[in-house]
Predict the 3D structure of the following.
Amino acid sequence: MRPIYMDANATTPLLPEVFEAMRPFWIEHFGNASSIHQQGQYARAAVDHARESVAKLLHCRASEIVFTSGGTESDNLALFGTLSEGSHLITTSIEHHAVLHAAESLAARNIEVTFLPCTPQGLIEPAALEAALRPNTKLVSIMYANNETGVVQRIAELARITHANSEAALFHTDAVQAAGKLPLDLSPRGPLKDVDLLSISGHKIHAPKGIGVLFVRRSVRLAPMMHGGTHERQRRAGTENVTGVVGLGKAAELAQAWLATDGPAHLAALRDRLEQGILAQVEECGINGESAPRVANTTNLYFDHVEAEALVIALDLKGLSVSGGSACQSGATEPSHVLTAMGLSPARARASIRFSLSKLTTEEEVDEALKLIPTAVARLRDLSPTWHNTAAAVA
Ligand code: PLP
């Protein structure tokens, strides 16, 4: 049986069209986009074209796109590039570590940090943000879609509240798990007009790893983190990763085209089929963040009396790739900070698995997964001392 990949929130495969777009830039057109000779100018034109493609996906100006090495760098640049000693940062307890650990590092440098809690459904309450804003708040950073649960925040409203209550504060969103899954319109009259900074990552939208974007609204003054050449309008020094940029440009074009089709609805239907199929067959199991809005590709389920790590390994042995918590912390025995922030007990958080599909996932793969999962859960529960005392086991 062919392996089934349901871990798209960790990374996605390159699409063949993306690979083909990048191919000439490895050997044939290897120029440095800053060189004035023809090889350099060819690379420059390709970078400019890709910048336009990403700007179209985000409905912003090409000059507002800063290419980085990925989501982690974009998040760090947004935080370190806008905050200085004595200023105040508001973020949340459910961010990716790229924001969370950057915020902790800033806290050690005399920047005040407030971590907003979330509701049991994983949502950040607008009133909590409003109450946390202070005269010295310089940045609010709230993620768009959560990488573990897929829960989508009301970003337009949270950004509007930030600007309505503070003259100085900027609004950043980590949209790494939203890009390519939800329409993002940053135009001056669009729904995201109050968002000042937004991060995306190439490898989550079928572009290569090691390339990302920070959208920086024209009005924002951003201090660079790295010092060197004048690349990216002095916002990010370093020779451009031309092949990566070209790949991200192509992936952005494909994502935009896909968003305009019934692709997202089809993907949501496949995710729902998987969820409902599991819930119908497995007892003492449920969806984390079920009643919150979620991106179409993600479901996070708890299987009580099962260790997520053991289930991930059991499914992997059967050819199904999934993830327990976020991939970036696999190997750690700590329960997910996102699920515990939502109020799950450590045991339930440790029993939770993320399935993240992509536009390449097929109905046959979902049906095959639906055969594997109940059997794997039942086997592991058979070995679990706590399971044998439950009503479901006795029945
Ligand atoms: N932010 C979120 C929400 C993510 O899911 C990830 C990666 O998993 C990142 C940031 C980091 O992106 P990258 O892997 O490109 O550094």
Notes: The CA atoms of residues 94 and 337 lie 7 Å apart. Residues 38-58 form the longest helix (21 residues).
